[in-house]
Amino acid sequence: MKITNETKVGALTAVAIIILILGYNLLRGNDIFSKNIKLYAVYDRVDQLTISKPVYLNGFQIGRVDDLSINAQGKIVARLDISKDVNIPRNSIAKISSLDLLGSKGVVLIRGNDFSFAKSGDTLISEIDKSLTESFNPVKDQAEAMLGKIDSILTAINSIMDPGFQRNVNTSVERISQTLTSFQKITSDLAGQTERLKFIFANVESITTNLKNNNQKITSLLNNLDEITDQVAKANIKDAVLNANKALADFADITAKIQNGQGSMGKLLNDDRLYNNLAKSAEDLDKLLIDVKANPKRYVSFSVFGGGGGKKKEEKVKEEKVIQEIIEEEKLEQ
Q1: How many Å apart are CA 277 and CA 275, to the nearest integer?
Q2: Continuous H helices in the chain
Q3: Cα 137 to chain center, whole Å?
Q4: How far apart are alpha carbons 42 and 79 in whole angstroms?
Q5: Fewer C-beta neighbours within 10 Å, C or N terminus of the chain?
Q6: How far apart are the first and last CA of the chain?
Q7: What pLDDT was estimated at residue 306?
Q8: Alpha-carbon gap, residue 230 to 217, rounded angstroms
Q9: 147 vs 216: CA distance, rounded Å
Q10: Do residues 131 and 101 touch, judged by C-beta distance below 8 A?
C-alpha cells in the first residue's frame, strides 16, 4: 500500500502540532503526564503573581501556579498544581510572598495542624505577605525621624557657633565658677566650725537618746491624754448646757417680773409710794431731832441730887407715849 504525499504531510503536521503543544506546556512548566492534585486559593490581589510561579513548602518546591482567573465577586482564584506525594493539611495557608529583592512572587505554603489532608479541588486559606515597599516603610519612618534629629543637632551646633550664644555660655561658666567659689568658702567655714558642729550633733544625739529611753513614758502620757479627751468627750456637756440655758431663762423671767412690778422686789423698785413714805419719815425724824435739840426737857429730865424719882418716871412715860404717837401717825400716813 502506497502512502500518498498528502497523508505524509498531514501526519507530519499533526505530530508537529502535538510537539508544539507539549513543548509550550513544558516551557511553561506544565507536566501534562503528571497526576498532581489541584488546590485553589482566593485572593483580593496577587501583587504581580503570574502563572508557572513556584509553590514552596519549607523552602522546597512542591508545585507551581497552574492558572489565575477572576470570579464573579471580582476576586482572583489561583489554581495550584501540587505534587501528589506531599500531604497538605486542610487548614494550611497559601501565602503570596516575595522570593527575592527584585520582587519576584511565589506561593509559600504554611503547613497547618489538621489531621485530615487536602484533596484535589479543595480551597486553602489565602494570605498575602507585605510587599518590599511595605516592609521598608518602618525603616523609612525611622530614617525620617533620624534625619529630623540630625537636623536638630545641626541647628544646635549652628546656634553654638553664634557669637551671642558663646557670650552667654561664657557668662554662665563665669557664674558657675563664682558659685563653686562660694561653695568652697562655705565648706571652709564649716570646716572651721567642726568642734561646734560636733557639739551640736552630740546634743541632737543626746536628745534622740532621751526620747528613745523615755519612749514608754511618752506613750503612757499620750494614752492618758487620749483617755482624758475621751472622758471630756463622754461628759454630759449637753445636760450642763441645757441647765445653764434653763437658769438663764429663769433669771430672765425674774427680771421681767421685777420690771413689771411683781413681788416685793418689783414693788420696791417700781412703787413710788414707798419712796415717798421713806422720804416723809426721814423728814419727820429730822423735825423730831430738831425739836429734841430745842426742847430737851420735854423728852429728857434728870435731877442732880437724885430727888424727884417719881417725877422722872412720869416724864419717861410721857416721852414713850409721844414716840408711840409719832410712830402711829407715820403708819397711818403710809
Answers
A1: 6
A2: 5-28, 132-160, 163-192, 194-213, 215-234, 237-259, 263-270, 272-294, 296-299, 309-333
A3: 40
A4: 9
A5: N
A6: 193
A7: 47
A8: 20
A9: 69
A10: no
Q: In the chain, what is the greatest distance between 2 CA atoms, to the nearest angstrom? A: 227
Block residue for cell numbers 553664634: 162
Report pLDDT digits (tens) over 133-171. 555 566 667 777 888 888 788 777 766 666 766 677 778
Percent of the chain predicted with pLDDT > 70: 75
Q: Is the dihedral of CA 90, 92, 94, 99 positive or negative?
A: negative
Distance, in Å, from the CA atom of 173 to the CA atom of 160, rounded to the nearest integer, reads: 14
Question: Cα separation of 132 and 219, whole Å?
Answer: 76
* SS3 state of residue 84: coil
129/105 Cα distance (integer angstroms): 10
Task: Report the distance separating Cα 333 and Cα 280, nearest Å.
Answer: 9
pLDDT at 129 over 60: yes
Q: Which grid coordinates are listed for 72?
A: 464573579
Read off the amino acid at residue 21: I
Note the pLDDT tens digit of each residue in 206-250. 888 888 888 888 888 888 888 877 776 666 666 777 788 888 888
Kindly write down the DSSP assignment for every residue of 299-313, as one continuous string: H----TTS--HHHHH
Cell of 267: 414693788
CA atoms within 13 A on the CB side of 133: 1
* 158 Ramachandran zone, left/alpha/beta (phi>0; psi -120 to 50): alpha
**Separation CA 80–CA 118 (nearest Å):** 12
d(CA 13, CA 306): 208
pTM flag (> 0.85): no
